[in-house]
């Protein structure tokens, strides 16, 4: 990607600490409700349960509330919030990202809990809370469990979902402490850079070796350690953090060569890897969380030499989408952490694809081809819309991420242009494509610990990035630090 004229590196990145609620639906309670007599974790437990949190989701909700506000319904924070804004109440709902949540609601314990329930999609998606993204809630999990014990409710409920990260020639994911890490594959191997603080500045690039010209994928282990996979036509290798947010192993052999790969986490934390080649799609999975691996197994077909992307259903089942020049197919788990369906037709062929989820959990799939970008979305847990045109760059590389308020945003790049499109509201249709930069070779988006989207674009000149500074405002394109990083042709 050509560097934007005048692009500059900001020494201290814009920090939006505790953008505590970034995606609630309309229709919150209009009037305040009496605050229960309980205080602290017991208050979060009572109002959280009444809001609908159950099981693991209730425990996590209490822990996040403790990390955000010490479960004080009158808590507020204005420090380090850019744009200037106020985090309010038990779950610190931010008035900039959620003006539809009134102060009267935000400082009312039950109304705040109801908002948190909607924002987190029933306790399955805690990405909007920076304390969760940085692991700050973990120290409070014991107290949260004690509060649930005192409440006396141990009803079954969902655990938080871990959504698959986009795969490609450049990938990014957050370490357990909330810092983004990025890997980029050049002709001579793979380079790595990382944020020095959560949502903050970046390190210099370091060279790691590994397969040249590789396709990459990244996922967290159940204990929070990231694991990276690199595939080219002859080699598949992986490396992994030795401890959460810590140093890395050396490259280790993981299989033979192939065309593309994608990685996701089962609901029980086991990583599952999918790779395409000339005879279809194969997979390999951890036998236990953080544990050893199965042998490679056929998935029963799939498009040859296909581009692969993964999504996750609201109940935690993984779904695989595979596209080549003539065929688009998908398979899905028939049960949580379980086996797989047969491959089914999902559309015609194309260039690239990306998968994301609406605020209500429904999957959304975008695919590019010679006349632009099309999308298809779930209308129910088992039903899909028809393909709909969106416009956009022809034969582009695609990525997507959810904006801080929960809307899906899609980025597309080809040799001459970069563009983006976003939902006009939660679970809503999309607006028009807008220019996002000049052309390049690859694009990937990831969410900072504070919820803001960060986009990485590549070209023969190196790797650049661009990040959100508000609802619809962005930084210029810039290097991560002092150098452009590897050329990605």
Which secondary structure elements does this structure contain, and how are they paired or packed?
Blueprint: H1 40-51, H2 55-69, E1 76-77, E2 87-88, E3 93-94, H3 103-106, H4 109-119, H5 130-133, H6 141-151, E4 170-174, E5 180-186, E6 189-194, E7 206-209, E8 215-220, E9 226-231, E10 235-240, E11 252-256, E12 260-265, E13 271-277, E14 280-285, E15 297-301, E16 307-312, E17 318-323, E18 327-332, E19 344-348, E20 352-357, E21 363-369, E22 372-377, E23 388-391, E24 397-402, E25 408-413, E26 417-422, E27 434-438, E28 442-447, E29 453-459, E30 462-467, E31 478-479
Antiparallel strand pairs: 1-2, 2-3, 4-5, 5-6, 6-7, 8-9, 9-10, 10-11, 12-13, 13-14, 14-15, 16-17, 17-18, 18-19, 20-21, 21-22, 22-23, 24-25, 25-26, 26-27, 28-29, 29-30, 30-31
Number of strands: 31
Average pLDDT level: 90
Identify the CATH class of the largest domain.
Mainly Beta
CATH homology superfamily of the largest domain: Fucose-specific lectin
The major β-sheet equals: 4 strands, antiparallel
Total of domains: 2
Indicate the overall shape. globular
Q: Could you give the distance between the termini?
A: 10 Å
User: What's the CATH topology label of the largest domain?
Assistant: Neuraminidase
Helix content: 10-25%
Strand order of the largest sheet: 4-5-6-7
Number of helices: 6
Provide key terms for this protein.
Neuraminidase, Lysozyme, single chain, 2 domains, 489 residues, four-stranded antiparallel sheet, 31 strands, mainly beta
């Amino acid at each position: 990607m050509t560097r934007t004229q005048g692009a500059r590196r900001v020494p201290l990145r814009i920090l939006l600490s505790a953008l505590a609620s970034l995606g609630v639906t309309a229709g919150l309670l209009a009037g305040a409700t009496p605050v229960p007599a309980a205080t602290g974790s017991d208050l979060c437990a009572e109002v959280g349960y009444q809001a609908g949190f159950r099981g693991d989701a209730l425990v996590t909700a209490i822990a996040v509330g403790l990390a955000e506000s010490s479960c004080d319904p009158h808590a507020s924070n204005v420090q380090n919030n850019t744009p200037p804004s106020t985090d309010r109440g038990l779950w610190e709902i931010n008035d900039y990202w959620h003006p539809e949540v009134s102060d009267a609601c935000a400082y009312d314990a039950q109304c705040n809990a109801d908002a948190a329930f909607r924002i987190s999609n029933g306790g399955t998606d805690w990405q909007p809370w920076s304390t969760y993204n940085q692991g700050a809630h973990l120290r409070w999990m014991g107290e949260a469990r004690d509060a649930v014990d005192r409440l006396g409710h141990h009803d079954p409920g969902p655990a938080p979902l871990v959504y698959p990260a986009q795969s490609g020639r450049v990938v990014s994911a957050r370490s357990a402490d909330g810092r983004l890490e990025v890997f980029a594959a050049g002709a001579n191997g793979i380079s790595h850079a990382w944020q020095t603080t959560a949502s903050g500045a970046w390190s210099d690039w370091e060279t790691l070796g590994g397969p040249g010209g590789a396709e990459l994928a990244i996922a967290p282990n159940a204990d929070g350690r990231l694991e990276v996979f690199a595939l080219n036509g002859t080699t598949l290798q992986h490396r992994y953090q030795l401890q959460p947010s810590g140093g890395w192993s050396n490259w280790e052999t993981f299989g033979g060569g192939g065309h593309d790969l994608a990685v996701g986490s089962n609901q029980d934390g086991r990583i599952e890897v999918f790779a395409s080649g000339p005879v279809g799609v194969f997979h390999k999975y951890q036998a236990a969380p953080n544990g050893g691996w199965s042998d490679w197994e056929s998935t029963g077909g799939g498009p040859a030499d296909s581009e692969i992307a993964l999504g996750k259903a609201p109940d935690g089942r993984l779904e695989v989408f595979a596209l080549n020049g003539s065929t688009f197919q998908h398979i899905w788990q028939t049960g949580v952490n379980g086996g797989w369906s047969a491959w089914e037709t999902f559309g015609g062929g194309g260039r690239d694809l990306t998968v994301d989820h609406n605020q209500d959990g429904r999957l959304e799939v975008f695919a590019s081809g010679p006349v632009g970008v099309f999308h298809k979305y779930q209308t129910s847990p088992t039903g899909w819309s028809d393909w709909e045109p969106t416009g956009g760059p022809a034969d582009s590389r695609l990525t997507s991420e959810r904006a801080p308020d929960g809307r899906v945003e899609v980025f597309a790049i080809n040799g001459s242009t970069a563009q983006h499109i976003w939902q006009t509201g939660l679970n809503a249709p999309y607006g028009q494509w807008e220019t996002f930069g000049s052309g390049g070779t690859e694009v990937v988006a990831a969410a900072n610990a504070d919820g803001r989207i960060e986009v990485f674009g590549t070209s023969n000149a190196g790797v650049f990035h661009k990040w959100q500074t508000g609802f619809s405002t962005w930084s210029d394109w810039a290097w991560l630090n002092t150098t452009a990083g590897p050329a990605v042709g």
